[in-house]
Design a protein that fits this description.
By secondary structure, the protein is of the alpha/beta class. It contains 7 helices and 10 strands. α1 packs across α2. The two termini are about 20 Å apart.
């Protein structure tokens, strides 16, 4: 595990984009595992800038996102599909048919989870998986529980996660209470993992990376992965 520290969010975003960009350059048809939330926005902006400069070509890249809210249509401004289109996909030359997220409008979340797991498996898993981390140690929407979920699955979001995500919604009661997420096992199949976190996550990062490996801190499982890079910003 490599742990890198940057002075600020901007430096963290540039460094993360360099690592992701290097993966694209080394393997133009790579599978990128992507994340949403506030942490990766700067990295996506930097990737867009590098594409606009002619430094990156995403035409052969395929992507798999970690998760999606249940009950939100792709065009909903709070859906993760909309987030990815707005922050990355619509601004680079990636083919939309090569960008994959769970279907939040699926009538049967269990069946959709199985379908998405099979899709990720058929692609060979991610060459590089980008992660953020929740204040309770969740990765994707894998919340603290009594086991590490293996495959993509529906999940009921904890109150702390709902409250943390409510800043992105007009009202807290608008935040969906359920989502479909890659399982911890799905995430761990990635060849490489890149975890980025702001200064406000310092305490949970220390617990996850240096504490006991336990499903009560889902991110602690990353201690068992063969190739993890963690970037933390000081301010």
């Amino acid at each position: 595990m490599r742990i890198l520290e940057t002075e600020n969010y901007e430096e963290m975003s540039v460094l993360a984009a360099r690592i992701i960009g290097a993966q694209v350059l080394l393997k133009p048809d790579c599978i990128l595992g992507l994340a949403t939330g506030s942490s990766p926005i700067g990295a996506y902006q930097e990737l867009v800038r590098n594409y606009q400069k002619g430094l990156l070509d995403f035409s052969g890249v395929r992507t798999v996102n970690l998760d999606e809210y249940c009950g939100l249509a792709p065009e909903n401004p709070n859906s993760y599909r909309h987030f990815m289109d707005e922050n990355l996909f619509d601004k680079i030359n990636i083919k939309k048919v090569n960008t994959f997220l769970p279907d939040g409008m699926a009538q049967n979340p269990e069946q959709e989870s199985a379908r998405y797991e099979a899709l990720v498996t058929s692609l060979g898993g991610a060459d590089l998986q980008l992660l953020g981390i929740g204040r309770n140690g969740h990765i994707g929407f894998n919340e603290p529980c009594d086991h590490f979920p293996k495959d993509t699955h529906p999940v009921a979001l904890t109150q702390s996660t709902i409250e943390a995500n409510s800043r992105l919604f007009e009202r807290k009661e608008d935040v969906p209470s359920k989502a479909i997420t890659m399982g911890v096992g799905t995430i761990m199949k990635a060849d490489k993992i890149l975890l980025i976190a702001g200064k406000e996550k310092k305490e949970i990062i220390e617990e996850a990376l240096f504490g006991k490996v336990t499903p009560q801190v889902p991110a602690s499982v990353l201690q068992l992965h063969k190739d993890v890079t963690v970037i933390i910003c000081k301010s």
